[in-house]
């Protein structure tokens, strides 16, 4: 029972690195798009820029969700450092977050019930 802090911390750091790498890749993709756009003065130009716009939206959407996730991970890591006893507790209702949920998403801030409520409010 209880949370394995060391294991959780390791998972969080691993995920953080993975997301950082994903972000780099996406940014590299995004700059590729720009270069293509500047140099594409041929007949495919219109098609290309339409595709580029979709790509760019997709990329910025992905970057946005990665950023949100990174913030949650930072938050969870800070909590592990300074506020261990609060880790694994829902930030809204203060009840323990479901263990299966924490196993999959160690940076969860809310229990399933609260998260569902929050998602509905949006
Ligand atoms: Zn809750």
TrEMBL record:
<protein>
    <submittedName>
        <fullName>Transcriptional regulator, TraR/DksA family</fullName>
    </submittedName>
</protein>
<dbReference type="InterPro" id="IPR020458">
    <property type="entry name" value="Znf_DskA_TraR_CS"/>
</dbReference>
<keyword id="KW-0863">Zinc-finger</keyword>
<keyword id="KW-0479">Metal-binding</keyword>
<feature type="zinc finger region" description="dksA C4-type">
    <location>
        <begin position="90"/>
        <end position="114"/>
    </location>
</feature>
<feature type="domain" description="Zinc finger DksA/TraR C4-type">
    <location>
        <begin position="87"/>
        <end position="118"/>
    </location>
</feature>
<dbReference type="InterPro" id="IPR000962">
    <property type="entry name" value="Znf_DskA_TraR"/>
</dbReference>
<dbReference type="Pfam" id="PF01258">
    <property type="entry name" value="zf-dskA_traR"/>
</dbReference>
<keyword id="KW-0862">Zinc</keyword>
<dbReference type="InterPro" id="IPR037187">
    <property type="entry name" value="DnaK_N"/>
</dbReference>
